[in-house]
Amino acid sequence: MKKIFVLILSTFFTSAIFASVDSVVVPIYRQIFHDDINKAQKDLDKADGKIDGKIRVSTNEDINLAVTDVWTRRIDELQNTIEQNTKIPANNEKVRYLRYTESLLKAFRINWRSKQFNPVYSADLLNNFINIMNANIDGVSMAKFIGDVPYQVAKINTEIFTDNKGYKESRNIVFLKFCEAFPDRILLEMDPYVNEPYADSLLVVSANLSPSAVYTKAQAVNTPVGRLIHKSTNPVISQIAALSKMPDGLWYFPFLDDILNKKITVDDIKKTIGSTDNGYDSVAYYKLLVQTEISYYKRMTAPAKDTPIAMFGANGLRDVLFRKANQHFITQINELHEKPENIRMRAVDPLSPVDLYYMMVMGENDIYTSSYKNSFNRFIQRMGKTPRTDSLLENINFDYFKKFIKMAANFNKLDTFLKFMPPAKAESLMQSFVANLDKTNNLEDAVDVADCYSSINDKKLLQTILGYVIANEKIAIDNYNERGKTIYGLLKTIFLSADSTNNIDLTSAIGIPPIYTIDNKALIDDSSRIIEQVFFFGDEDGKNIFNGFLGSFSPKEWKITPQKEWVEIKSLKGQKVWIYANRPLDNNKNLDDSAQTHLNKYLYDNDLNPSVVVHRGHSYWLPYTIKRMPDNAKIVMLGSCGGYKNLSTIIKSSPDAHIISTKEIGSGFINKPILTYLNQSLLSGKTIVWKTMWSDMTKQFEKLDRGTRDTWDDYIPPYKNLGAIFLKAYNKKMAGE
């Protein structure tokens, strides 16, 4: 005992003078700064939901190991280097660089978690930090090192080394990198740089990419950017500046290219605006949008591939066409779904077949099944006694035809659409539908083909599509086209697996996690809890369904604890399941948004990482749920998935997610029993078998009315969501390579 006491006493007195970082002796008065770094490392470790010495940023374990090494071993080495560096002998200087190191760790965590930094660049970020630190020690500008790295690396390190002599020059470099990376957001950050020699050039770039942003800035005539816009002699910017002086100038934006090229005048457009109660003649204005879309798309697909100004982006042609199709037609016929058909469909009476075509395509995420079918029938009828759907597609240069085919398949109208064209034309169309999936800069067309395949019941048509996929795969192989080989090879395997007689296990065939089941172990955290987060929104529908949601939890099994902005629901028996749902507070005052933000902070601060995410709201709220939902969720219940953009974002942040969605608008009558069944399954602690769940739910809905049964039929279980399965498999393969 005496020897132990002496050893403890000796250790105490030694540590009063020095502490140690991996064998490097650290004065005790600097140890606190090393402790802060160690804490920042631990915060990084737990940021993925598990404290296990590994920073998981990807499904690729090699990437995870490399990133973990950067922020653990190499940071430890950097701490040692700072302590041993004879060029920084002063205590205050060493403290400064230790604090900079802590700032680096925190900046990485914040930017990674907010999806503003790709963790693959971790080594570049640290290497660049070390180079700048050494330059700073030598009194040298960091501008050279900032210029050598990508924007996301340059941004973080520039804001850490604000005392470097090259800080001002480096900020200019970072801004130009920002402009290159995010050209549509130039004007948001431009005020401090309006006197730089490159300002006018950036203004022209911004005008071509996002003219409505220039318009908004031009209205603020007394701001630095506003003055720059009104002084510009560039014809595009001058025209935008002129429109900004008009009270309804944004109505003219979709036609900006035609105005500049003297194909239409402001007065011509003004005639379609009219003076009706809602400010303009919705039909005439919509028809002009449609004709302009046809004209612009023809230019885009011509050999010269000319992209008109204001075709894309906020308040551009497609944005306004989408909003007007939904606002004045889709919303109206949806809301009147209980009225007689002649009253319900009155809004679309003035529309031609082409107008209806664009209306249906633009309403992909919001149109009800009955609204689509009634619109489709009118679309065919208004082509006359001998409809030729191939002629219509030719007249619009096949604009959006892949989206239209996917929707027609989803709503069981594809056979009808193909019937009204010669067989050879139908065959050519389906060939085109499957062709060139590897030639685009995203996977949207490939996902549409996958979703279309899952909706078709005609075995002959399925075989036709599969045959085209196999043929395109062979072409890609023969031409050493790796992207094409991957896309078509995955689609082939997924389509073959959809036929149960082929007995294909997709988990082993394409290297993705199980899609037919999800084990309880995949859902629990380090404390053996399953955390579920439910997103509500403060419109009338959200308020109406919230109380029903709370009422679905039996007090014998669950304890509900109300909080100011959310409720906590915890299981009383069985598996430990904790559910957090924000209150649907008034969205007009942005209170629902604040509630979600505060709940997310509470979950993060308390190491509560949801593995189950539920969206309860209309499809137009879904992007807000996706923005706030945690990474690496394992079960995601969406209602309507809202198309490719939303689906791809979910798969990117939660690559192993089992997604429950619907082809059309989600229904509270369906969502509530699904969620109840799901929560009871979680409570049991057993593996969830999706086929069993779907079979049980189908039996439950068979007892209800035809409308509810039809709505249930539109819901898609995880194992039938072929678009999501394709994205998972493609991303997995790319990560592996």
Structure overview:
The protein is α/β, with parallel strands linked by helices. The protein contains 35 helices and twelve strands. The chain has an eight-stranded mixed sheet. A hairpin with a 3-residue loop joins strand 5 (558-562) and strand 6 (566-571). Helix 18 packs antiparallel against helix 19 (369-381) and helix 24 crosses helix 35. The longest helix has 24 residues, at 61-84. It is globular, with a radius of gyration of 29 Å. 37% of the residues are buried. The model is unreliable at 1-21 and 275-279 (pLDDT under 50).
Helix/strand-derived class?
alpha/beta
**Average pLDDT number:** 89
CA radius of gyration is 29 Å
- Uncertain segments of ≥5 residues (pLDDT<50)? 1-21, 275-279
Distance between the termini: 59 Å
Number of helical segments?
35
- By DSSP, the count of extended strands is 12
- Main β-sheet, in a few words? 8 strands, mixed
Summarize the structure.
This protein is α/β, with parallel strands linked by helices. The protein contains 35 helices and twelve strands. Residues 1-21 and 275-279 have low confidence and may be disordered.
